[in-house]
């Protein structure tokens, strides 16, 4: 099988995805990388021997020798770069979230529909073993029909990952309730079988906004910006982003279009880093304790008064085949994209679902910055919904 020739736009933190996709002789190889940072281009040249590097994304997009493009740049650039690649006839992998506004997400979907170029959004959590296990339990009907979903996200490395670079600024992310929560909102939608129709949120910048140790504007992150202990506690953080204007704690209530009620909570100044899902149906409930290999998903289906730690059924989250990226989810994500770029067809990720997750995050952010007033989610053109549900048939 001839290798797909891949162009990469952006070689920063998510450059791991490009390295995962680089499989010379086994289906795909990275042949060109664009990044405005000279250091990133040097690292890319070392990682992909023989690949061309350039500071100008247009050179990669216009290259007739490129079959597919991976957009791994900061969120606010996704729409412009993705649409350019789609118009050039490339299959496109765009990292989550799709973009930072509903309008720009819709522009991407319309462009994919108009050009017929294949669009794939990197919502890798749909391939995480713990998420697949919970979805399988729900699909089998073990807890009955889903009625409510509660998600708690403890972001122990929040200070390192989200308050030392562009993630800390509204102009690049809208807010962490979009940038970070869009991933869990997408999974919540997937488990509940519906999309948020109305949201209400509260949030605040409670801790990181008061920390004084900021870098000067234009000074890059230090080499030790991340450590295994997360620079704990938050007050020990140094060299934070010069501008911090996104919330570090947020709470969202949602009513989905199928009647399911859901809640999502996110905190960036907690010492632990994991996600806790509780899904309650009309015949039982499930909850994950831990979210990596070896963690457990417990299911309660018999009546009980008071707390009972021993569930009716306990499932062990299976070990991933690869330790690379999000518990092995990233290789599975790339496998699906490469298959889709080559052959088309339906995928477990969904551009429409990606747009709906962003829309919920945008409207929830508007709500929390307006005192918690409820917001309705804008609908998507039904023709686009049908097109992507059909697997983006060739046009």
Automatic annotation (TrEMBL):
Domain Gfo/Idh/MocA-like oxidoreductase N-terminal: residue ranges: 5-123
SUPFAM superfamilies: Glyceraldehyde-3-phosphate dehydrogenase-like, C-terminal domain, NAD(P)-binding Rossmann-fold domains
Superkingdom of the source species: Bacteria
InterPro entries per UniProt: Gfo/Idh/MocA-like_OxRdtase_C, Gfo/Idh/MocA-like_OxRdtase_N, Gfo/Idh/MocA_oxidoreduct, NAD(P)-bd_dom_sf
Domain Gfo/Idh/MocA-like oxidoreductase C-terminal: from-to ranges: 136-371
PANTHER family in the record: CONSERVED EXPRESSED OXIDOREDUCTASE (EUROFUNG) (PTHR43708), OXIDOREDUCTASE (PTHR43708:SF8)
Record family assignment: Belongs to the Gfo/Idh/MocA family.
Protein name: Gfo/Idh/MocA family oxidoreductase
Organism from which the protein derives: Actinacidiphila acidipaludis
């Amino acid at each position: 099988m001839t290798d797909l020739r891949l162009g990469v736009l952006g070689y920063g933190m998510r450059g791991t995805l490009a390295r995962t996709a680089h499989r010379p002789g086994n289906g795909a190889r990275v042949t060109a990388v664009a990044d405005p940072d000279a250091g990133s281009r040097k690292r890319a040249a070392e990682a992909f021997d023989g690949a061309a590097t350039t500071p100008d994304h247009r050179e990669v997009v216009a290259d007739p020798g490129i079959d597919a493009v991976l957009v791994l740049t900061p969120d606010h650039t996704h729409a412009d770069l993705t649409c350019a690649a789609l118009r050039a006839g490339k299959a496109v992998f765009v990292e989550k979230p799709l973009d930072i506004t509903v309008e720009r997400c819709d522009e991407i979907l319309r462009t994919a529909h108009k050009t017929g170029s294949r669009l794939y959004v990197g919502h890798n959590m749909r391939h995480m073993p713990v998420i697949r296990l919970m979805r399988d339990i729900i699909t089998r009907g073990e807890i009955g029909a889903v009625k409510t979903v509660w998600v708690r996200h403890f972001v122990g490395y929040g200070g390192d990952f989200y308050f030392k670079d562009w993630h800390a600024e509204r102009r690049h992310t809208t807010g962490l309730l979009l940038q970070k929560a869009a991933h869990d909102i997408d999974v919540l939608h997937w488990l509940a079988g519906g999309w948020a129709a109305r949201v209400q949120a509260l949030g605040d910048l409670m801790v990181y906004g008061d920390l004084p140790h900021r870098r000067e504007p234009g000074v890059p992150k230090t080499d030790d910006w991340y450590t295994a202990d997360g620079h704990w506690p938050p007050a020990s953080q140094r060299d934070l982003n010069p501008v911090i204007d996104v919330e570090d704690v947020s709470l969202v209530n949602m009513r989905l279009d199928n009647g399911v009620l859901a809640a999502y909570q996110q905190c960036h100044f907690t010492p632990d880093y994991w996600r806790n899902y509780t899904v309650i149906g009309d015949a039982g409930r499930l909850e994950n304790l831990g979210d990596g290999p070896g963690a457990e998903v417990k299911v309660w289906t018999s009546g009980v008064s008071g707390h009972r730690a021993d569930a009716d059924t306990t499932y062990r989250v299976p070990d991933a085949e690869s330790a690379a990226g999000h518990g092995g989810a990233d290789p599975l994500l790339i496998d699906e994209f490469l298959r889709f770029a080559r052959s088309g067809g339906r995928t477990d990720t969904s551009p429409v679902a990606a747009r709906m997750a962003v829309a919920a995050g945008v409207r929830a952010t508007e709500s929390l910055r307006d005192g918690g007033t409820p917001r309705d989610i804008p609908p998507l053109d039904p023709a686009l919904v049908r097109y992507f549900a059909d697997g983006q048939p060739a046009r």
